[in-house]
Amino acid sequence: MKNEDWQVLKSMELDDWLNFIDSDDELGLTTIKAKSRAPTADEHLVAKFQEINDFYNTNKRLPENNMANISELMLFKRLESIKNNDEQCRALVDFDEFNLLPLTHEVTAQEPELVEREINSFEDIFEDDDFGLLGDSDQSIFNIKHIKADKRAKTDFVARRKSCKDFDKYKDLFPIVQKELNSGQRKIIEFDDKGENLVVGEFYILSGVLLYLEEVEFSSDAKTVNGKRFRKDGRTRCIFENGTESNMLYRSLAKALYADGKIVSPVGEYFADIKNINEDDESAGFIYILSSQSQDSRIQAIPNLFKIGYSRTPVKKRIANAANEPTYLMAPVEVVASYECYNMNTQKFENLVHTVFKDVCIDVEVADLQGNMCKPREWFSVPLEQINTAIDLIVNGQIVNYRYNSATRKLELK
Fold first, then answer.
1. Which of 24, 277, 285, 318 has the smallest number of CB atoms closer than 10 Å to its CB?
2. Alpha helices, DSSP H only, in 239-395?
3. Is it the case that residue 221 has pLDDT exceeding 90?
4. Which residues lie below 8 Å from residue 59, measured CB to CB, with a gap of 6+?
């Protein structure tokens, strides 16, 4: 720059000087470019998962472990990484439009092996990704902080519950099942594991609501990979008696039932079907379960009060005079369940049931018509489902392995 030009610049005001520099900037050196905002960890995770959604939407299948297609292999590894991370699965629940993600899984923790691996293929590269750089598995990067709390799903069950549009197809099933439960054709039993008792086409009770398991579509099989154990999982279709439905995960349904649910047994599974009885079979009488209609406050105060009895005559005939008999607490009774038995010693069967529940046999006195005090001995304070379970265990010969715990009010293995 010439001396005279410098003198001119020195005499300029600051604004004029800046305008002069800007107008003479042929190379654009003074142009200020807008600084792009780096994506947040939340946005990065969602964007990565959206690529998997796009793949599924285009191909109608999940990305596979395809060594011939590196981009698909990357998506496969990314999806596996996300599926193994509960926090990421929950954060992405609102973006999982194709139900690709589980919300529960079991992992057997292992210490990382500090060994040097031989690298001979792309698969070896991904297996050697100890820092999760290829599979997007760094939890700290994807620690979701900017999603509002009300957008997160508390559980898969809550997130997936909605009105059942074709409930008319199912609504008549539920009153029938309730009637079969009341008549003893079905019974309520404990859900004693976390998945194997789930059968399509059967009924369950979840938090007091009857549900029908209409369908299960498995998306993953039970397997163990690199020390990590995964159980089979997939989406279900559950129809509830209140007109709602859910597509909760198979594993989520099992865990919910294990925590607060029951199994409704199939009709006739635990007792002989009358259609299979032939002329050579001999009726041995009836085992029955009754509830009392007594107005005595002492009787009404006893929870889960049932009479377990045996009769050679039909039950309705046997209880016709219940209001006048001490064995029935001098009050009418209601038949909860009645089973006609064939080719067996029904009295011994009844005695076995009484032995199982002997610790909860009630101790109460009632006066007969003559004013004599009597102590009925066949009334028990025990949940109905436990009575049904005991009968089942007697039928299959397993009752010797169980005892009734009056504290927990459940049959337990000895």
1. 24
2. 250-260, 297-300, 315-318, 346-356, 384-395
3. no
4. none
